[in-house]
Amino acid sequence: MEFTIKIVNTPDHSLFPSGKEYYFLINPEHKVQELIKMIHATINRKIKIPKYLTFSLMTEKNIHLNYDFKINSYFSTDKELDIKDRNENIFYLYFHSIIPA
User: Fold this and answer.
1) Which of 69, 46, 66 is nearest to 57 (CA)?
2) Minimal CA–CA distance to 59: which of 20, 9, 8?
3) Helix-strand-coil split of the chain, %, nearest 5
4) Which residues pair with 6 in a beta bridge?
5) Model pTM?
6) Partners of 55 in beta bridges
7) Distance separating alpha carbons of residues 16 and 66, to the nearest angstrom
8) Structure confidence by residue, pLDDT tens digits, 5-23
């Protein structure tokens, strides 16, 4: 299934402008962690992410995606067309700083 990742905020507006979308094909049975790896690889092709900067994914309903859950656990249905109609295949990427302990 194709998933859309929308950039909400960004460390580099020239390479990752807010609102930019990226598309990934991945099986919804895979864990969120696999999608994160794909996103990270795409970002690393453009910029080197500093160690203090990370990102997380949220649903349209502002639910934080847990890396250990299957992607399809965030769907309200099993029907692909309904998933797309409800924008459940769109996730929002937020960059944020890691505060050292």
Assistant:
1) 66
2) 8
3) 25, 30, 50
4) 21, 92
5) 0.86
6) 95
7) 23
8) 998 987 767 767 788 899 9
